[in-house]
Design goal:
The protein is elongated and about 50 Å long. The protein has a domain at 3-7 and 35-125. Helix content is 78%, strand content 0%. By secondary structure, it is an all-alpha fold.
Length: 138
């Protein structure tokens, strides 16, 4: 597993997430309602899909490598939250285990694993010459 790529992508994702929260909360002045959380999770999912695609250019895609990448991303996020986010913004360490933060950890774990699984299957189909499902329709 390419740990350096996973760590750098984790730092980049954390920075994008912090920027997203600043824009949603301070720029658009959205209160923490359902719309805020839906927007947060949609943007996180988009970031994770893009990051998974980039990560699997360095690493052979598989379900297990996606899970390992997700674990690294969660660890990097927690460390950066403990060092930067909590002292600067929330001043409350309960933030790490809040419900919406735990849901985002689950999302961060699942999306790279699913991406690794699907990227692996699509590469295997190309290697075997089967192509994608639309190629077989005549």
């Amino acid at each position: 597993m390419n740990k350096i790529a996973a760590i750098l992508i984790g730092i980049f994702l954390w920075g994008l997430t912090l920027l997203e929260i600043i824009i949603l909360k301070l720029g658009l002045k959205l209160p923490k309602t359902e719309e805020y959380y839906v927007a947060y999770f949609i943007v996180i999912a988009i970031f994770l899909i893009a990051a998974s695609w980039k990560y699997f250019t360095f690493q052979e895609p598989s379900l297990s490598s996606g899970l390992k990448a997700g674990i690294i991303l969660i660890i990097i996020g927690i460390i950066l939250d403990l060092i930067i986010t909590i002292p600067m913004y929330t001043h409350n360490y309960y933030f790490i285990i809040s419900n919406w933060k735990l849901a985002s950890y689950l999302l961060i774990l699942i999306i790279p694993a699913i991406a690794g699984y699907f990227f692996h299957n699509s590469r295997e189909k190309k290697r075997r010459g089967k192509g994608y499902f639309l190629d077989n329709i005549r």
